[in-house]
Amino acid sequence: MASLQPAAAEPQEDSPLWFARPPVVPKKVKGPFRRIKWAVMTVLLAIYWGVPWLRFDRGPFAPDQAVLIDLPGRKAYFLWFEIWPQEIYIITGLLIVAAIGLFFVTAMLGRVWCGFACPQTVWTDLFMMVERWVEGDRAQRLRLAKAPWTVSKIAQRLAKHSLWIAIGLATGGAWILYFNDAPTVMPQLFLGTAGAGVYITIGLLTFSTYLLAGWARESVCTFMCPYARFQSAMFDRDTLVVSYRDWRGEKRGKHKAGDGWEGRGHCIDCRQCVEVCPTGIDIRGGLQMSCISCGLCVDACDGIMDKVGLPHGLIGYDTERNMALGAAGKPRQWHFIRLRTLGYFVVFAAAGAAVLWALLARSPLEASVLPDRNPLFVRLSDGDLRNGYTLKLLNKTNQPQHIIISLDGLAQGQLTVLGHEGEAAPSLELAPDTVAALRLFVRLDTDQWAGEPIDYHFNIHDAARDLTVTTPARFEGPRQ
Amino acid sequence: MSTADKPEIDAITGSKIHPHEWDGIRELETPPPRWWVLTFAACVIFSLAWWVLYPAWPSFSGYTPGVLGYSTRAELAQTMAAVTAAQAPMNDRLAKLDYAAAAADADVMNFATAGGRALFAENCAQCHGSGAQGNVGFPNLLDDDWVWGGDYATLQATIEHGIRAANDVDTRQSLMPAFGKDGMLTREQVADVTQYVLALSGQTADAAAAGRGEAVFAEQCVSCHGEKGAGNRELGGPKLADGIWLYGGDAKAIEAQVWNPRAGVMPAWAGRLDALAIKKLVLYVHSLGGGE
After folding, report:
1. CA A111 to CA A101: how far, in whole Å?
2. Domains contained in chain A, number
3. What CATH code is assigned to B187-259?
4. What's the burial of B273, exposed, middle or buried (CB within 10 Å: 0-12/13-18/19+)?
5. How far does the CA of residue A413 sit from the closest CA of chain B (Å)?
6. What is the CATH number of domain B74-171+266-287?
7. Known binding residues of B for heme c
8. Residue pLDDT, tens place only, B95-153
9. DSSP string computed for A17-69
10. Domain end point (choices A175, A210, A232)
């Protein structure tokens, strides 16, 4: 693999310990990868800003927002799925699936997530679009940066930062819609009646968007992002990465129209690949940590190749193996199915299946028993033993549930539910979307006690759904 | 130490080099970064403002209160007032209901038993145990054996007036005579009646001694402990014909109790807890499993 060090940063004997990084002022570029980036950006921003407004009818007891994280209610709603706090492992599972998916894509296609789909890239692209629109392209912006502070420069800067902050506000504002009912909270925002938490969140996210997409930009990818540091662990000889075909380009040099190409490479050293790069690197130095695989240098170089009448592909997505084969003049080889990609895919599929199974197999009714521990048992006046339990029942549906509680495996045990004394098979109604805590007493004749704890079950039967939830319990008494 | 007429400049950093040297080590006079100095200055200004606004400096008789008048005590009082206000609707509901109606209302019952649990931990657990399981001399409140009764009204009366509480005229009074110590029964009679009580509670006993003890029991004990040791709640005479004992149920413990009885004291809570708190405690204790 090519050097991961930027070509220009060779340390010299007398070089300073640090130097200020020159600002990166990327130039506008046209081409297929730029079009893909625009398309991906449009789709992702539409999803981000649009999703909170989707409605989903869940009946009278639940909110009708398709995607909602209801923090006060301790529930998260995703279309058909309603996630309770104790099911947070599903979210963990989804994050694992996403991480493995990222590894898989990285092993296949390199750092394409960074170049096309990462929020940092998407918002930076959006901010750069605004910047270009207000202040012009690279040359004009460089000129403006050096220019004295005139009314026109102040006006341009003011316009740019105002627009950036407006986008930041829209970004932070949309985030809180995922945690509140969008049509309710939107007017409240403008009337000033929304909660303090909402305004603080919007403020923080506005500031962070403005700071990260407006000012930090490529510094985030190069210095802050942990993924940049370990992405190379997923790379191998067959990973597609943006590559400069030095065997075709070198020896580089200026080229005048009409000159021949004998005895020299195809790179005319126009530096367009450097000027369009959003992280400010020179791809001709080889694959580098700062390269986010966005392909804009490919677009720029192909444009130049068109102008000088040479074929595309001096810079392009290619593998290390093919680079070596190309240098040796041999045809390319593709190895998409490799131990690495297969491994990632298997783990990805398994984790995805596990999450899906967890979502589909979740019971609408859940029960857990907490036995009294202080004391473990009570001796009654006729010698009988009694254990107390707290039974927690989760009705995860948005409808009331009617349930009947019974014992299973403790034939002589007498069950009493506090508040339902005298019922042989205590039956009660659970309110929708709630946790009910019931006090249960189980009484056992002392003759039935053999000195060892008895394991048995509570059966919670929902007749309407013909569903029985079984939860283990243990009967304790004096040990012998 | 070396001295120089004008400061040397370090080639790499551009900082001045300090004119002293120890063991060949020299040091740079790098100024702290500007952002650091500004942050430090901001912190100084912040702390000066803090001294003026908030309580800051201790003195012999108190402290500087600060012009904002902030006080953690006042904040606590405010928080507590807010909590009390938030509980007021449920407290009002509970106050209007009698015990049976409160027990039938799931919301009220949840509220009352949660409050009762907290009150119990604060006031009752020291004697009755954190799980209300009791201890020797301190009744277990979970079981179904009550000296004075386990219905709502009796529980309320017991909590309000206590047991043998010195400062309450309506307290529950019952004192077992010291049959042995005061010479009312001979050593042999005490031993006999002990055997009889063992037999009553279904434990192994010397049949001959128990037979003799039955007569003693009929003469001395029946008035409080009832026929066959069935107990008498009117007088607070514990039931003896079961397996639940306040001071232990083996021969030694029973004999000690007959010879020189112990009698525990429970304080009267009427003056210490308000009526609503006692109501919550009654509902909580009743819900522990022994309620009648």
Report:
1. 12
2. 3
3. 1.10.760.10
4. middle
5. 16
6. 1.10.760.10
7. 124, 127-128, 176, 221, 224-225, 266
8. 999 999 999 898 999 999 999 999 999 999 999 999 999 999 999 999 999 999 999 99
9. S--PPPPP-PPP--SHHHHHHHHHHHHHHHHHHHGGG-B----TTS--BSEEE
10. A232
pLDDT above 70 covers a percentage of chain A that reads 96
Residue A181 lies in a domain: yes
Is A380 within 8 Å of B145 when comparing Cβ atoms? yes
Same domain? A177 vs A55 = yes
In terms of domains, do A425 and A459 share one?
Answer: yes
Residue A17 lies in a domain: no
Among candidates A374, A378, A439 on the partner chain, residue whose Cβ is nearest the Cβ of B130: A374
How far is Cα B168 from Cα B269, in angstroms, rounded to an integer? Answer: 10
The pLDDT of residue A432 = 86
Could you give the CA distance from residue B23 to residue B1 in angstroms, rounded to a whole number? 9
B243 touches chain A (CB under 8 A): yes
pTM exceeding 0.80:
no
Residue A248 in any domain: the answer is: yes
Domain that holds residue A455: 365-475
Q: Which residues of B touch A386 (CB under 8 A)?
A: 142-143, 289
Cβ atoms of A282 and A7 within 8 Å: the answer is yes
Token readout for A460 is 């919670």
**Assembly ipTM:** 0.79
Name chain B contacts of A16, Cβ cutoff 8 Å.
12-13
pLDDT of residue A258: 81
Residue extents of the structural domains in chain B: 17-64, 74-171+266-287, 187-259
pLDDT tens by residue, B14-30: 788 888 889 999 888 88
Look at A381 and B239 and tell me if their CB atoms are within 8 Å. Answer: yes
Same domain, A73 and A208: yes
